[in-house]
Amino acid sequence: MKLRKTAILLVPTVILAVSGCQSAGVKETAGTVLGAAVGGVLGSKVGKGTGNDIAIGAGTLAGAFVGKEIGRSLDNADRAVGQRFE
After folding, report:
1. 49 — alpha (psi -120 to 50), left (phi > 0) or beta?
2. Cα separation of 2 and 44, whole Å?
3. Residue 16 contacts by C-beta under 8 Å, 6 or more apart in sequence?
4. The domain containing residue 52 runs over which residues?
5. Which of 1, 4, 67, 70 is most deeply packed, by most CB within 10 A?
């Protein structure tokens, strides 16, 4: 039941996070999704009851942000390398 609750909270958050990535690179989008998933799972390990729900949401958002930033950095590095060889 706990996994289902995590999924119910995680999926809409990931969809909202990714929907803002229309101009994002592949790694930025992947980082956002992966970070949100990992953050949600880690958040599910904290607290009980309503506190657990809040921890899942906070973990999902924090993970999505961190994953997005890492992915953006990797996309920028890829673009820089690509421009060097043009």
Report:
1. left
2. 8
3. none
4. 2-84
5. 67
Contact (CB, 8 A) for 41 and 62 = no
Distance CA 73, CA 62 (A): 17
Task: Indicate yes or no: pTM above 0.70.
Answer: yes
Maximum C-alpha span of the chain: 55
pLDDT at residue 19 greater than cutoff 70: no
Q: Are 53 and 7 in contact (CB under 8 A)?
A: no
Domain count, the chain: 1
Q: Is 25 left (phi over 0), alpha (psi -120 to 50) or beta?
A: beta
